[in-house]
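RECORD TYPE: inverse folding
INPUT: structure tokens
STRUCTURE:
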């Protein structure tokens, strides 16, 4: 589950950076995402998984709900940190054109 969330977040960031022409080049962006971002986020999500599981013990429904909320919260916060909200010519509002308007763009 943690690896799936880490890879999905990296794909989301990579596509938004490509659509908004952010960064040095696609090769540099993908190198960062592949070699640094995914392993670091995977480690953080695994640690959160273990901590929440250890704190809630043997209560399956509560633990599953808490894990879902906590992991998605961590992914949203990490995405917000790396999301480029800067206005670029392809993305005047700092949000890629394919981003659904019903979902707020990540950011603090």
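DESIGNED SEQUENCE:
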């Amino acid at each position: 589950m943690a690896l799936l969330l880490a890879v999905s977040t990296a794909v989301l960031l990579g596509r938004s950076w490509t659509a908004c022409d952010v960064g040095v080049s696609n090769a540099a962006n993908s190198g960062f995402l592949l070699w640094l971002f995914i392993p670091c986020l995977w480690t953080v999500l695994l640690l959160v998984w273990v901590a929440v599981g250890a704190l809630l013990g043997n209560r399956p429904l509560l633990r599953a709900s808490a894990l879902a909320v906590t992991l998605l919260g961590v992914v949203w916060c990490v995405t917000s940190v790396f999301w480029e909200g800067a206005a670029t010519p392809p993305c005047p509002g700092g949000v890629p054109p394919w981003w659904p308007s019903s979902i707020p763009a990540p950011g603090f």
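NOTES: The mean pLDDT is 87.
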